[in-house]
Design goal:
- The protein is α+β, with helices and mostly antiparallel strands and 79 residues long.
- The chain has one domain: Glutaredoxin, CATH 3.40.30.
- It is built from three helices and four strands.
Length: 79
């Protein structure tokens, strides 16, 4: 079963880049949202997470703030 993944980030963010690389290395499809270019998606990110900093990663409705490989791995391993 595939996970529904959204990455809220910006192009120049090193942690966003690491998150993209991590997700790609796992062969996972994800929606890559540039919150600098899309104000509505930026608002959505803040409403869902309470955060204004990036990256914010949403995996099956659960929010992860910042690049936390271990916590994301746990969620990705869930059935």
């Amino acid at each position: 079963m595939s996970k529904k993944i959204k990455l809220y980030g910006v192009p120049g963010c090193p942690f966003c880049r690491r998150t993209r690389e991590f997700l790609k290395s796992k062969g996972l499809a994800f929606e890559d949202i540039d919150v600098a270019a899309d104000r509505e998606k930026a608002k959505e990110m803040v409403e869902k997470s309470g955060q204004m900093s990036v990256p914010v990663i949403e995996i099956d409705g659960e929010m992860f703030i910042g690049f936390d490989r271990d916590e994301m791995e746990k969620k990705l391993m869930e059935k």
